[in-house]
């Protein structure tokens, strides 16, 4: 036993450092995603269209990550197979991004930052129960119920608003949550490398660029060049390469029990940032709905931490090298 302990301590220290890095990375990713609702909404309100932002998003990310995609093999779609690659691209690529940016055309940024992430967390919790044998507790049920009730409040507020297009935007955000929520589950289930998954999503979504060039391109004078460059960096580098890469990697390190704690940060950041940047002050029913969703997310996603003796080597990793399911928290 004395010969094993010196070897296990460095492993535990390395795992603990890796866990902390993933935890900090998820915080950064949530800030990026939360701010993106406000930044994208600001861009749309000031001349850029959802089509422009889609082209900037995947044109930038796709070109940067094209070598990574090709290194995995074109015939095997970066090494994961075309079926799985197309599924990942649908859930976190062009279709999801189109719904998100279209929704921001019609509805406030706070709605997008609340509805989509709310459903992502609910789907993550349900998926964790089904795929990873996570225990379904009263806390989870109460949290999910609060989220659904909050979504209903936003739906009522949108349907009774003087601007009927808000409900259309909320429906787009509903679609975002439904398809985006399955992405981290599949990353864990299929054990896809984070950077590889990001490259696949970005490159496959470049299929949109020819359609943009033929039907939606309005020239480069629709906005100052520096605005186009900044939104290209925000959409392609921050939200796709950095944000999606961090989320994909951290989801494998932290596991569904811990990853579910982070999406509540997105509506908080998006709602608070939208007030000074966009002047979007929610109404009474909207505040109630947003508050219910945020509170429900925290209740549903928060789990009691594992004992210190188990962290992080045993409690953090969704599946070990032999395919054993993660220990329950």
From TrEMBL:
<dbReference type="InterPro" id="IPR051258">
    <property type="entry name" value="Diverse_Substrate_Transporter"/>
</dbReference>
<keyword id="KW-0472">Membrane</keyword>
<dbReference type="Pfam" id="PF00892">
    <property type="entry name" value="EamA"/>
</dbReference>
<keyword id="KW-1003">Cell membrane</keyword>
<keyword id="KW-1133">Transmembrane helix</keyword>
<feature type="transmembrane region" description="Helical">
    <location>
        <begin position="21"/>
        <end position="39"/>
    </location>
</feature>
<dbReference type="InterPro" id="IPR037185">
    <property type="entry name" value="EmrE-like"/>
</dbReference>
<feature type="domain" description="EamA">
    <location>
        <begin position="168"/>
        <end position="301"/>
    </location>
</feature>
<feature type="transmembrane region" description="Helical">
    <location>
        <begin position="140"/>
        <end position="160"/>
    </location>
</feature>
<keyword id="KW-0812">Transmembrane</keyword>
<feature type="transmembrane region" description="Helical">
    <location>
        <begin position="198"/>
        <end position="217"/>
    </location>
</feature>
<feature type="transmembrane region" description="Helical">
    <location>
        <begin position="166"/>
        <end position="186"/>
    </location>
</feature>
<feature type="transmembrane region" description="Helical">
    <location>
        <begin position="86"/>
        <end position="107"/>
    </location>
</feature>
<dbReference type="InterPro" id="IPR000620">
    <property type="entry name" value="EamA_dom"/>
</dbReference>
<protein>
    <recommendedName>
        <fullName>EamA domain-containing protein</fullName>
    </recommendedName>
</protein>
<feature type="domain" description="EamA">
    <location>
        <begin position="26"/>
        <end position="154"/>
    </location>
</feature>
<feature type="transmembrane region" description="Helical">
    <location>
        <begin position="258"/>
        <end position="278"/>
    </location>
</feature>
<feature type="transmembrane region" description="Helical">
    <location>
        <begin position="284"/>
        <end position="302"/>
    </location>
</feature>
<feature type="transmembrane region" description="Helical">
    <location>
        <begin position="54"/>
        <end position="74"/>
    </location>
</feature>
<feature type="transmembrane region" description="Helical">
    <location>
        <begin position="113"/>
        <end position="133"/>
    </location>
</feature>
<dbReference type="GO" id="GO:0005886">
    <property type="term" value="C:plasma membrane"/>
</dbReference>
<feature type="transmembrane region" description="Helical">
    <location>
        <begin position="223"/>
        <end position="246"/>
    </location>
</feature>
């Amino acid at each position: 036993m004395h010969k094993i302990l010196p070897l296990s301590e460095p492993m535990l220290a390395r795992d603990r450092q890796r866990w902390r890095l993933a935890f900090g990375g998820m915080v950064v990713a949530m800030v990026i995603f939360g701010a993106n609702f406000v930044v994208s909404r600001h861009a749309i309100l000031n001349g850029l269209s959802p089509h422009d932002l889609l082209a900037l998003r995947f044109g930038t990310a796709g070109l940067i990550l094209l070598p990574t995609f090709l290194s995995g093999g074109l015939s095997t779609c970066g090494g994961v197979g075309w079926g799985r690659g197309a599924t990942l691209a649908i859930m976190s690529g062009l279709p999801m991004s189109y719904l998100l940016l279209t929704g921001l055309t019609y509805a406030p940024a706070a709605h997008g930052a609340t509805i989509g992430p709310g459903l992502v967390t609910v789907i993550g919790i349900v998926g964790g129960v089904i795929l990873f044998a996570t225990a379904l507790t009263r806390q989870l049920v109460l949290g999910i119920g609060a989220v659904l009730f909050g979504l209903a409040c936003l739906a009522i507020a949108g349907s009774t608003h003087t601007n009927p297009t808000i409900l259309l935007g909320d429906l787009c955000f509903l679609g975002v949550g439904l398809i985006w929520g399955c992405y981290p589950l599949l990353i864990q289930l299929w054990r896809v490398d984070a950077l590889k998954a990001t490259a696949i999503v970005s490159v496959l979504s470049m299929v949109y660029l020819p359609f943009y060039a033929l039907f939606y391109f309005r020239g480069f004078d629709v906005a100052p060049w520096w605005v186009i460059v900044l939104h290209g960096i925000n959409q392609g580098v921050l939200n796709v390469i950095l944000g999606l890469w961090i989320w994909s990697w951290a989801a494998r390190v932290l596991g569904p029990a811990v990853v579910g704690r982070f999406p509540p940060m997105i509506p908080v950041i998006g709602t608070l940032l939208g007030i000074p940047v966009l002047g979007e002050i929610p109404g009474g029913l909207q505040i109630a709905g947003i508050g219910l969703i945020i509170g429900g997310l925290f209740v549903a996603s928060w789990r009691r931490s594992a004992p210190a003796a188990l962290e992080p080597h045993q409690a953090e990793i969704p599946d070990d090298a032999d395919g054993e399911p993660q220990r329950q928290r």
